[in-house]
């Protein structure tokens, strides 16, 4: 029989209220011994919690959830305690005495998955919702928890199974009175699904960027004003600013929230040729971060008297933004060859910073919203989508006479989609998914 478990479901430390969750077949007995007769299901009941010798531990609200009508699908309970450390530790020690054990990370949600209360994509959404820092992250997680992602993948899987049934009918019953084109009838649905999978893969990065953060790199020559621009956008002194070229030696990542989306804004080392070993490493890291970024702001000293800005040209991509900085200074404006969007600004001018921030927010909304269906949120999803697309593409390109080969590819495509929702996930995949959860979930 499976162990009964417990965990502190609220943050540790001093607080007004602490919640301890319990789940498992022995929870009812433990609650009775700790707090007296079981309260009515789902009704918060005020009880005294007692130690083994009858001493008082705390006065708490006790909630009872009888399985399978609970989060985990098992008998469960919640103890809403006063949040002092001594109280929490006494209650948890008492639960150990009663035969329960501390839950592993993600064990409550894993039990919910194993008992059919959630599929794997929904279980991952629970972790994403707990970790959400912005409204967009919370919305994406709630959509996924509500089954939007799973319903889409299950619909695609059903399409593949229907196609597979037609193909296998042609293979298994060649002498039966079946239409001659029974296998060919599977093609239209398969071709339509291939288009949808291609669209999903193109859109796959959107969900990741909402979940992990949209990466914006500030790139440019030394003393172009990247650190000043970072501080102005962050509205705090996140980076050291001096007149000495090469002050920034490493990538400084600063989280922001723009238009409801999480952003990672990175100040990078000034890109130039150097013989200084430390600065050279900083330039290498700057280039690597810039190449992986979703957007680059090419910061150029608009009053520069040299061509130092040209050393960054190879990092600039289509869709990036040229920021002509220090526009408040006197002197002739540098002529930068750039066909994309450009902004002139001074980091000392609040209006300039507001305009740049508005442009960044518009870019985020354009990049991260407005998709036709829920986006994949994890690398695991993207890999399974790519595998399904590859199998389906091979099936459609297979010689029509080799129906058995085509059917096997369709079967593998359906299996790849099943891995996203966890219908056939192996044990090691489940372990990897749930180990990232917090204790108490």
Can you walk through the features of this model?
The protein has a six-stranded mixed β-sheet. A six-stranded mixed β-sheet has the order 8-9-7-10-11-12, with helices on both faces. The protein starts with a strand and ends in a 7-residue tail after the last helix. The model has no long low-confidence stretch (mean pLDDT 84). Helix 6 packs antiparallel against helix 13. The chain is flat. The protein is of the alpha/beta class and 441 residues long. It has three domains: 99 residues, Gyrase A, domain 2, CATH 3.30.1360.120; 138 residues, Up-down Bundle (Four Helix Bundle (Hemerythrin (Met), subunit A)); 158 residues, Rossmann fold, CATH 3.40.50.300.
In short:
The chain is of the alpha/beta class and 441 residues long. It contains 14 helices and 12 strands.
Low-confidence stretches: none
How would you spell out the order of helices and strands? EEHEEEHEHHHHHHEHEEHEEEHHHH
Percent in helix? 40-55%
How many helices in DSSP terms? 14
Total number of strands = 12
Write the layout of secondary structure elements.
Blueprint: E1 5-8, E2 15-23, H1 27-35, E3 45-50, E4 56-65, E5 76-83, H2 85-97, E6 101-102, H3 107-114, H4 120-131, H5 135-145, H6 148-172, H7 187-202, H8 204-212, E7 214-220, H9 226-234, E8 252-258, E9 261-267, H10 277-292, E10 295-301, E11 321-325, E12 341-344, H11 350-368, H12 379-397, H13 403-421, H14 427-434
Parallel strand pairs: 1-6, 7-9, 7-10, 10-11, 11-12
Antiparallel strand pairs: 1-2, 2-5, 3-4, 4-5, 8-9
